[in-house]
Prior knowledge:
0% strand; 14 helices; mainly alpha
Amino acid sequence: MQRIEAKCLVIAQYVEYKISHYIDKSFETTFGFVSVLPGAFSTFRWEAIQGDPLKSFFKGLESDKHTAKEANMYLAEDRVMCLEILRRYSKNWVLRYIPGCRALTDPPTNVVGLIKQRRRWTNGSLFASWYVIDHLNLITRSGHSCCRQISLFMLYIYMTLNFVFSLLLVGSLFATFSIFIRSFFDNEDCSSFGGARAFETMYLGILFIFTLMSITKPIEKSTAAYTLMVILFGIFVFISLSFGVRYFWTEQRGEVVGYLMMGTLLGSYLVPIILNCTRLNPIKYFVGVFILIFLSPMYINIFIIYSMANLHDISWGNRDTDSKKSMETKKNLEKFRALCLIVWIFLNAVYGYAIIYISRDSQRFYILVLTVLVSGTVIMKIVFAIIHFFYDCFTRCLIHCCKKEDKEHKGVEHE
């Protein structure tokens, strides 16, 4: 079982990395900024990072001197450093993704290790994104051109909207699941406990149990329970997909919204392999796509809930670090966790139930707006990824031609 678990998780992360690099990072690169530059895949110019960027990178080592918000923010120290590089006074440094570069990394091979890693990533990126959005005005002090600054502000508008939506992902997923389920059991009386209520109760029951587990029980002592939760949510996602297909077929039949969602879903998985067919293993990729879809609720429900329930944990997840903290720091972190968790649960509960109990026509409008927003975002990323692909091809050809001419020129001089 452990070997099967390891293979499934590694293949899923393989596809996740490919999509995030070939689409997300290509999209950000066209603006001259990459929001996160992981250490395993990054190279920096020394003059670009010396000073404030490098200091911000190592501030996470002084966790006992930070507020709870800062301690979580510096779990994603690379995101903070990216902003510090971009906003350097009178400088115009840019951050770019270079396709074709190779690097090796050791991904987590079990559910517990992956959850612990993503807890650090989720909490770090959440508060680091907050920091980036809060310090946008500092870019005006940099040496970037007016056009570059305008494009960066457009990117940050997208990042802000994405930040707000990420806070409501759990509630949004439940609301969408509920709408699809209720459209299937559309003849039931609202006051009766039928098939739709049964599915909703099971879904909410799993969420509730998992939230309690995340708050009260150490993850290392609940390996089997966490793995079971991943499997249960995976089953629910295929139930939701089947009811979702029926929903679009019956409720949105003949309308563009259904075709838009299907085209977006296919495009997000097909474009990376079309643009990078020489760098991907097609069989491994499509097997990974199936596994990644099965694990998609884990990326939303399990990662986010566990992360919000453990905001007081500022360790580096599955890495060994010195986690000594003073009693005052521990108390502050616990209070911070409790406050954020209560507010977050309240927002998602209100959002989810507000969508469920609005009228049928309003739900159709909600699905329409959600589909347009999600599809529009993905299509925009794909378009910019394609532009970056051809720009990269043109740049490589230009460099190759220059090298060839240089060699010929040297050959003539030697003769």
